[in-house]
Amino acid sequence: MLTKALSNECLLxxxxxxxxxxxxxxxxxxxxxxxxxxxxxxxxxxxxxxxSKAGLLSSxxxxxxxxxxxxxxxxxxxxxxxxxxEMNANSEKLRQSYNELLEFKIVLQKAGSFLVxxxxxxxxxxxxxxxxxxxxxxxxxxxxxxxxxxxxxxxFFSGEQAKSKILKICExxxxxxxxxxxxxxxxxxxxxxxxxxxxxxxxxxDAGIRHRNKALASIGVHLVKWISMVRREKAVYxxxxxxxxxxxxxxxxxxxxxxxxxxxxxxAALQRATFDxxxxxxxxxHVMDAAESPPTYFRTNKFTNAFQEIVxxxxxxxxxxxxxxxxxxxxxxxxxxxxxxDWGHGICLLLGALVLIARESKLGTQKLGSFMEMLYGGRxxxxxxxxxxxxxGLIYNEFFSVPYHIFGLSAYKCRDTTCSEAKTTGxxxxxxxxxxxxxxxxxxxxxxxxxxxxxxxxxSILLGVAQMNMGIILSYFNARFFGSSLDxxxxxxxxxxxxxxxxxxxxxxxxxxxxxxSQADLYHxxxxxxxxxxxxxxxxxxxxGQRPLQIILLLLAMIAVPWMLFPKPFILxxxxxxxxxxxxxxILATSETDLEVEPDSARHYDEDFNFSEVFVHQMIxxxxxxxxxxxxxxxxxxxxxxxxxxxxxxxxFYEKVLLLAWGYDNxxxxxxxxxxxxxxxxxxxxxxETLSAFLHAxxxxxxEFQNKFYHGDGYKFRPFSFATLTEDED
Length: 730
Description:
Elements: H1 2-6, E1 7-8, E2 10-18, H2 30-53, H3 70-118, E3 132-134, E4 139-141, E5 148-150, E6 153-155, H4 160-172, H5 184-240, E7 244-245, E8 251-259, H6 263-276, E9 284-288, E10 297-298, H7 305-314, H8 325-340, H9 343-358, H10 360-363, H11 370-377, H12 379-396, E11 412-414, E12 427-429, H13 448-481, H14 485-516, H15 522-531, H16 546-565, H17 567-580, H18 594-597, H19 611-635, H20 638-662, H21 667-705
Antiparallel strand pairs: 1-10, 2-8, 2-9, 3-6, 4-5, 7-8, 11-12
Transmembrane segments: 332-357, 378-396, 459-479, 491-512, 549-566, 667-688
Function: Essential component of the vacuolar proton pump (V-ATPase), a multimeric enzyme that catalyzes the translocation of protons across the membranes. Required for assembly and activity of the V-ATPase.
Keywords: Coiled coil, Hydrogen ion transport, Ion transport, Membrane, Transmembrane, Transmembrane helix, Transport
């Protein structure tokens, strides 16, 4: 089966290696090494933050340098960190001294001007709360990183007791005190000394910043390589810490999953590792039996990966379960195109997809935004959607909602010359049907909308019933592969009978009506198939023997419901009773193959078998399928609804925007109309409608198709890889 070929089997393997190959450095255990790598990662993050704060850029492409050992790198990082911490501490002390001197200088200036102005008249003795001088001019303290606004104030007081209170209040509010002599000459002398000291500190600070930036630049050259090296080493030691010692404490034992196709590669890699490490003991490779379900792994390429991701977003396939992505590659873009059918819009999507594919080597190395990354990842999905949109657009005969005579002349012509412009009456068929797709003469006719509605609605039902049948057939292949005859007899058979007795029969009636040109009312046929199955069909009869066939199909559908519900739970109960009758203990499974001997038995349940739970589960599953057969078929009518909406929107924009503007003999109005038409086409029809059709096609696959056979309760095979490491793992 094709889907099984893509579902690669995984083996549980055990690897035993000597501790001398790669257990530690200088006798350290892997746990200590992991902590050391984490500490180095912290230092590298510290360097990165310092480089970012300094406004420098770390080199994306580091210069070529000889490889360093982990221990040597650890020493280098410690030296660089100590150097940076020391430079930061010295710079902070100098900056603090600079700020204090600058404050002192400004205080001297403000106090000097105040004392000079107040010396011309006597200052009377006042209360303490009135002896506060506040300067409204805020001082910008010069700091190389930030500016702090402060206020210079003067307090006059009398007595030591008042002085001590004022000092305590100032200390509580974090105010700084500076001695200001009353003598103007001394003030000027102190100001000159402070200014000289400030100039020296500025020179020292500038030199320190240049030295610090030079040190950061030298680190930034190698930062990317160091981060990558430490990240990889930490990942290796994290993996090694998962290994266990054997009983002799001389060998390490590791268990892991391996795809069957990679067995030879893995063994070769282990042998190469043994040789490179000069190990005294060879590596022992052993395939083990696993009690747990293996992980799921699918080999994909750049074309199929996006489709696999669409399926995995619903749920990862159970181990060796049929993979829906094999069919999704075709059905997903096709159902999208059924809703988006317009070969003009399809060409626009095709051009966008071709641009992304042509530049994939360049875009793959760039960091894209979320929207562009989504488009780039789904470029091949977009390619197929555009190709199928062109195909369906040719069937609908719509090019930006305009029909063309691409495949020959119309099969209809006017009855006489009086209807040459009307297109609403008088058309008669005079030759064979139009070669491919919808006849362009339907465009603008009175019966255009009823004809297209009928066509697209019936086509939606046919596509939906076909895809649901395919899902049920895939459940048969799943059951046959896992050897579950119960699922084949009491799940697949009644489901296929129930679905096709009702909606398969409806599809047959649609095809017969198309082939014969009958005017039978299919709504009447299906409704009275349930209400009055024995009533004569009259003019609604499409073929001989239709009424007895309807009675038989209705009986089969009624029988299929209890067929799905009752037999399987009771058979499982009987098998469980027979297996454990007269036993105190159950059978202990010795290998994976034991489960394959009797796949229909109750061994899977063992002592946990609960008949009520099994019966309720089967009842829910049966009711869900019966009701889902109706709702899922109705859900496929969204193909008709969205196709109609897309076509009508295109028609409105073409007729009410472009043609209306083109009717004016004014260049400006025409350009405005063309711009509005282009804007509506690009943002509404090519973006919003594309997203809408994509989401509806996604729902049809996840709910209507995959729920017939796909469990999606597995988990991915995630091999160790340096390429998957991210910054979150530092």
